[in-house]
Write a structure and sequence with these properties.
This protein is mainly α and 202 residues long. The chain has 2 domains: 96 residues, EF-hand (Recoverin, domain 1); 88 residues, EF-hand (Recoverin, domain 1, Orthogonal Bundle), CATH 1.10.238.10. It is 58% helix and 3% strand. A two-stranded antiparallel sheet has the order 1-2. The longest helix has 18 residues. The two termini are 34 Å apart.
């Protein structure tokens, strides 16, 4: 059911107070957009929020994100209570980081996107999967997987404090959050090192 005008006003006031990134008129726009998306959802969640499918369509069309793995991870980060539904609070807070986040917030967000299994590390396998999806294959003669493996090793050498080469099988070749944060602070361009997961400046 549509929220009453008074309910919407109270919600906007509350979200404006809690939001670090949006003013009142921006929050109103985001709440209106949320209502439109909920109406489109036509699911069990309609009324409280919208589903992964509606979220993916929206983020894809608004921000040009096309990678399914990235879109799933972004949904999981927005969906803080992990109930499969984006509520209005999750929507406004998530977009705050995505559109206006500080460097600290964006470092944390990108790390969470790239940490596909949520274990607190970005592993070789995760880097490989992300890079394989985000890179264009240049030449039919070249073995694409080998080039991506080389890129993974270069990234690890540059970013990991405990880098171990591919002959070492004790799984040390992975990035901790501290490694990732330090590398990005030293060189901001590394923020999206493993694939685009933030909107461009447009």
């Amino acid at each position: 059911a549509a929220m009453s005008r008074k309910g919407v006003k109270l919600l906007v006031d509350s979200l404006t107070r809690s939001s670090k990134h949006f003013n009142k008129s921006e929050v109103e726009c985001l709440v209106n957009l949320f209502d439109t998306l909920v109406a489109k959802a036509s699911s069990d969640f309609a009324g409280v929020g919208f589903t992964r499918v509606v979220f993916r369509d929206t983020v894809h069309s608004a921000f040009g994100m096309t990678d399914d793995v990235v879109l799933d991870r972004v949904f999981s980060i927005f969906d803080r209570d992990n109930d499969g539904c984006i509520t209005v609070v999750e929507w406004v807070e998530g977009l705050g980081v995505l559109l206006r986040g500080t460097l600290d917030e964006k470092i944390k967000y990108c790390f969470q996107v790239y940490d596909l299994n949520g274990d607190g590390y970005i592993s070789r396998e995760e880097m490989f999967q992300m890079l394989k999806n985000s890179l264009l294959i240049q030449s039919a003669d070249e073995e694409p997987d080998e080039g991506i493996k080389d890129l993974v090793e270069i990234a690890l050498k540059k970013m990991a404090s405990t880098y171990c080469d591919t002959s070492d099988h004790d799984h040390d070749g992975k990035l901790s959050f501290t490694d990732f944060e330090k590398a990005v602070r030293d060189e901001n361009l590394l923020l999206e090192a493993f694939g685009p997961c933030l909107p461009d400046i447009k």
